[in-house]
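Ticket #4471: structure export looks truncated?
Reporter: QA, pipeline team
Priority: medium

Steps to reproduce: submit the single chain below to the structure queue and open the exported record.
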Amino acid sequence: MKKNLILYILLWLCKFGYGQNALYIPPSITGSSFNLNIQNGNTQFYSNINTPTFGINSNILAPTLIVNKWDIDTFNVTNSLTGFGNSTTIHWHGLHVPAKADGGPHQIILQGTTWSPIFQILNSAGTFWYHPHGNNKTDLHVSKGIAGMIIVKDSIESAILLPRKYGIDDFPLIVQTKSFDILNQIAISTEEDTSVMVNGTVNPYLYVPSQVIRLRLLNGNSMRSFNFGFSNNYPFKMIASDGGLLNSAIPLTRLRLAPGERAEILLDLQSIQGDTIYLKSFSSELPNGIYGAATVTGMMGGSIPDYNLNPLNGADYNILQLIVGMQSINPVIIMPTFLTPSNFDTSYTISRNFVLSPDSLNSAVEQVIGPFNINGSHFDMNTINETVYLNAIEKWRITNQTGIAHPIHIHDVQFRILNINGGSVPNYEQGDKDVVMVMPNQYVEFVSKFVDFADDSIPYMFHCHLLHHEDDGMMGSFLVKDTTATGNVDLNVQSKVSLFPNPTKDGFQIIANQTGSISMKIMNGLGEVVIMRDGDIDNAFISLENIPSGYYILQLRIGKSIISKKIIKY
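Actual output as written to the record:
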């Protein structure tokens, strides 16, 4: 295996060399209605070699969606993928949206169908992204190219003197590494991701003006973290994290981003017109345990097989060449200091604990390669792991008992990190976040408020954003429930209601043991009502003959009580 990998890398280098390519800038789309077609494509990462890829409205990647806070937008997502088993989803990573519009594994988009969520943009200005989140398919679909940026604009950000001319002084950078097999197919679940690319471009260069420019960095990787910086330690300022603008600009020479994390940085190039600098990853500085460091070795001595053969691990390498030219029209030449005040409420009243563990505590190798679980469980479409209540402010502690660092992502909300292993939080992680790296044998505590959206049936997700781990089940779900809504969840009534048979092929009988009128609705994973009935339906047979196989939620209103049950039609 090791000889084959070394030979493969040598052949790859000889075959393709290091020819430079102009950086591809994904087209931008604005408006209130977005038509997004998920499609098959072919991409030439290397000259004259076609590789099958997926994209949205293109062969690879997706258009950058530019939206405004408070707008109500429609997203028509059509799955035109061919090939067996290519149902998918689209998750709006970082956006605060209703559960039924979140695009998790419960909102499957079957091949040949269109999903059209409508929601209001409630996030403040920032850089977000959208990508598949299907059960067991996230790594494959993201690696093959389905990913795009979302730029949210608002009045606060617009009032600050910042670069914001897309593709001129404001650049989206989706940074990834990929592995290719001998047939030039994109491969997943390997340690051979030796091809570094930005926006799907290998060995890219970009002409930039000699002024202040803005780079929107997204680590779109399946596994690898980056330790961003520039050649000769050229300084930059970070102005935004996952959830938007920081309080003030932070001067840096290094910025670590795990898969799923974003950051906006400013670079003042006025003094180096005519020169070239490189965006790099200084991975030699990453500590043990982070995928991309020199070593990922657990406390029992286990390591990832063949990990040491990847030349990127623990190395410092170029990502993007920046060629500094003349200034553009009306250039930004001053970097701001103050950005926006913080008003995040950290006065939590509820605490939760989550423990990340390997399935086998006795295997040194499984300490670092998994499979892994959260609180002893793997993801199950039919299980709700946590119930959160609307408007609650909660503190979550994530404890990592594995030998590898895990970036943990929570849907629906942004959070603020309170401490890392009881210590201080680095300045670049003190803003609004939706992904946080938890190092081996450490814990992280953060606080968030669950506002605006409640749903008794459709959950949000929390999971590791190492996509191979996520697909292997390192994920849980949580409901946000509204205790002030009309009707109460009566546990006594719920315990008396049963459905038979369930799972079912044709239908089921409701056994409620209740008198009086009962109203019923059955909803699919998109939150759409597919069946409604009112009246005396206790012991009645409910036919499912006219709806497709899948996972459904039955909601019953019995008097003032509301109960929910899961139904599986096979």
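Status: closed, not a bug. The export was complete when the record was re-opened. Leaving a note from the reviewer for reference: The chain is about 5% helix and 40% strand.
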